[in-house]
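**Fold in tokens:**
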Amino acid sequence: MTTTLAGRRSAGPTEALPAPLHTRRSRFGWLAYLVLIFFALIYIYPFLIQIGTSFKTEPDATGSPLNPIPGTWTLEAFRQLGQADFPRWFFNSVFVTFFVTIGRVFLDSLAGYALARLHFRGRTAISGALIAVMAVPGVVLLIPKYLVLVQLHMYNTYWALIVPLLSDAAGVFIMRQFFVNIPVEVEEAARIDGASIFKTFWSVVLPMARPAVITLTILSFQASWNELPHYIVAAQDPKLNTLTKGVATLASGSLGSGNQFPLKMAAALLMTIPVAVVFFVFQRYFVRGRAPGPSRADGPAPRAAVRRRPGRTGRCAVSPRRPARACRAARPAPRSDQRGGRRAARGRRPW
């Protein structure tokens, strides 16, 4: 150990310096990335098999089912789907999903706002029952749904596919939790201006809940697009088959003998594309909407939350060493107050 002229100590030849901290962190970072890449490949590989198998011939798919690269590229599976009832299934899925998504977003938003803001007898009991309904498996409700649809003469119609899915307990719970975190002062200001309850909900509160609405839209679209048990119970007419029900018939071998791997994978691939497009387009809104309360990106930040840069006239930075009251004390008076003080000193009134 030696000492320099500046008074600093330098390591001698016999003393080893410890390894830099950032080097060890980088090693752990690379290890974490390798683990994440490994698990990502595990989740992505079945999807790659689905894409590759849809372009294979049936002997190639039977001989090498786990190889995602086709030996011979062909579109025969997609031609068979075009000759079957696949366009009809796609139209039914789009039609039902469109109306179910719009109705569920609207009704769940109304119910969530009522449970969050309106005061009526039994509101707490309804909120508790809502959480209890979320714990009930959907399979238990299939037979009651069938009996109700038969009694209302809605069986084997589009109404039977749409109406029972127009409301969802999870959607009501999501909207209620978001509306609770919106400041009440915003609604009070709208009521002072003469807005009704529905006008306040539609024009003031619902635009502020845009992240939650987009989240509910994505979840409703995915749930109705991938729904199968309810469609099986609600209709038996082949003209009312949706994509999920039609692909299930393909899996049972209704279009011929053999394993039909390319045909099934091509149908599943076409069925997956709309959901994937909707999710990737609205992904940032979906992630933002999962956080409770309104997002900061929906409007300007409040003045108290803005950090001003020090060093300019009339601006002060709040820090643990400099509390807010010190900034208020150091802030210069407005120009109107300065003028009023000069006028008062001259013997005139401030106004």
User: Anything to note?
Assistant: The beta strands are 2-3, 9-10.
